[in-house]
Amino acid sequence: MRDTVINKMPEKTVAKSFRSNSFRRLVKENIALFALTLPAILYYLIFHYTPMFGVILAFKDYKYSDGILGSSWVGFKNFEYFFTSMDAWRITRNTVSYASVFIVLGNIAAVTVALLLFEVRGKLALKFYQTSMIMPKFLSWVLVGYMTYALFNPSLGYFNQLIQFFGFDSLDVYSNSNYWPYIIVTVEIWKTVGLSSIIYYAALMSVDPELFEAAKIDGAGKMRQIFAISLPSLSPVLTIIIILAIGNLFRGDFGLFYQIPRDIGVLYPTTDVIDTYVYRGLRAGDFGISAAVGLFQSVVGLILIVISNWIVTKVRPENALF
């Protein structure tokens, strides 16, 4: 009887009914998993997708009195103002340069630390090294900013007291922008290398130990084992991390670039990045320009991720992100 009824139904109606039943069965069988993902879905809807409505500010001359929808449209004038300003080249150069250095030096440092940790055999020593290196990641940028200031304070800083003890003149790094590329890169790597090395260490733990035993039997030393087994085993994880990092090539860590140099204007030539520029724009009430710069960051980041992933699919498709 049921088959007879179904046969009399239009083909599109049968297909729609079948998909609906399949969806209900999928939800019923995985109700616990859907319940677990619900908080994450709500988080992204509320804090990531709903605020995307604000991108229309990039195309408007925002006025407090008129509101977002009532403000007049200005087309691409906010983008034009940014790209023709004196700040565009400086903040873009700083953002991309720092991000590139972080990708290269940060991953080299993390892989090196992971390889060293992999050689530690004592469990207590291993836990001590991992804990001590991962701790800086959980310190706020505000606290790290004060630690940096205590280190490089022009008169009472520990660094200046040390070099004065050895007969050298003190350095006022807060009035000279040339020192800050080295300070910022060092602080960033110090803060992030611990957590990044844990990721690579976990990847090394999944390598079959028999490969290392076979290499030892063949007479391979430690360096040969690293280049023949360890590094090729890390390449999939390394590729994914680099693709994600390339997506943030036009994005700087606001806490790092705002709290460490303490927003001192004389240091802007080497410390000002797109994120700190946007923050100052918001603080001054330039919502349209700030929204335009933020939209520029997001679009370029998306394009870079798609291009880098496409390149990986052509070279090593098994390591591609999607």
Secondary structure elements and their pairing?
Elements: H1 2-8, H2 11-29, H3 31-49, E1 60-63, H4 67-70, E2 71-73, H5 77-83, H6 87-118, H7 123-134, H8 141-152, H9 158-165, H10 180-205, H11 209-217, H12 222-247, H13 254-259, H14 268-271, H15 274-284, H16 287-315
Antiparallel strand pairs: 1-2
Helix pairs in contact: 5-16, 6-10, 6-12, 7-10, 10-12, 12-16, 15-16
Written account of the structure:
By secondary structure, this protein is mostly helical. It has helices spanning 2-8, 11-29, 31-49, 67-70, 77-83, 87-118, 123-134, 141-152, 158-165, 180-205, 209-217, 222-247, 254-259, 268-271, 274-284, 287-315; strands at residues 60-63, 71-73. It has a two-stranded antiparallel sheet. Helix 12 runs antiparallel to helix 16 (287-315). The longest helix is centred in the N-terminal third of the chain and has 32 residues, at 87-118.
Summarize the structure.
This protein is an all-alpha fold and 322 residues long.
Structural class: mainly alpha
The biggest beta sheet reads: 2 strands, antiparallel
The total of beta strands comes to 2
Helix content: over 70%
| Poorly predicted residue ranges | none
Strand order of the largest sheet: 1-2
Alpha-carbon Rg, integer = 27 Å
Which H/E pattern describes the elements?
HHHEHEHHHHHHHHHHHH
**Average pLDDT metric:** 86
- Strand residues, percent: under 5%
Termini gap? 46 Å
Please give the count of helices. 16
Shape: flat
